[in-house]
Amino acid sequence: MLAVRVVSAAHSQGTNMRYFIYFSVAFCLSARLTSATDQPKLSSAQQKVLDVHKARVEAGEKRDFATFSRLVADDCIYSDDDGVLDTNLKAHILEHWKLPLAYDHGVNPRDYVIHVYGNTAVLNYRVTIHEQFTDADIISEQRYTETYIKQNGLWLLIAKQWGNLPVNFHKPVAVDTSVYKEYVGQYEWRPLDQAETVSVKDGKLWTDFGEDMDEEYFPLGSETFFVKNDLGSVTFVRDAQGHVTGYTYHRWDGQEIHARKIK
To answer: 25, 183, 201, 230: which could form a disulfide with 104 (CB 3.0–4.6 Å)?
Structure first.
C-alpha cells in the first residue's frame, strides 16, 4: 500500500454480516480448491502439518463434524479480517454449515509457508475467495495463518487468523493524458520519508518511492488516481493560480493524508 511504501523506502473493512459470510469459507474452503504448482518441496514434518490442514478442509466440505472436531481444539482462537474474535468455534460451525457451499468458495491456495518448532507449527498461505451475490461475483485475495500444537501424536489447530490483501478492483477511465505533465515532480508525506517521484512514461503516469517501487497511477478521473495494490486513491490539488501543490491520499477508511509537492 502507499503508506507502507512510504515508510519502507525511508494499511480491512467490514460488518458482522461479512463475518458470518466468511465464517464457513475460513475453515471449510470449497472442494474447488486447486493446488499450487510451484510449491517448494516440504520436509516430512511440514507435509504432516499440511495434510492435517487439508483433512480439516475436506471435513468441512463433507460436513463431517466428527473429523473436524478431532482436528480443532475446543478453545481454538478464531480471528477474522474484521477483527472479530471467536473462541467457541465448535458451538457455531454447525449453524454455518447450513449455508450452501456455493455461497462462497476458495480457489488456488498457494504460497504455503510452514514452520515446525518441535510440537508447535505455523502454516501460512494465500487463497482467492469468491462470493456470489445475486449477479455479482465478489473476489477477495486473502492470506491465512494457522497455528498448531501436537497432542498425542496429532496436530491440532489452536488458532487461525486471516486478512484481506490490498487488491484494487477499480476500473481506469479514459482521460486527457496531456494534463499528466502538470503532476510531474517530487512529493513529500513527512520530512523523514523517502520522497515520491511522479513521472510520465509513454503517456502513462507513474509513481516511484525508490528501491524499485515504481507503479503506474491509473486514472479514476483527470486528477484522481489509484494503484493496483492499494485500496486508496490520490487526488492532486492546485492553488488559486492552478499550479499543482500536492495531493490528498484518500485511505479506504475515510482518513486522508496530505502530501506536499517539493520540487
So the answer is: 25
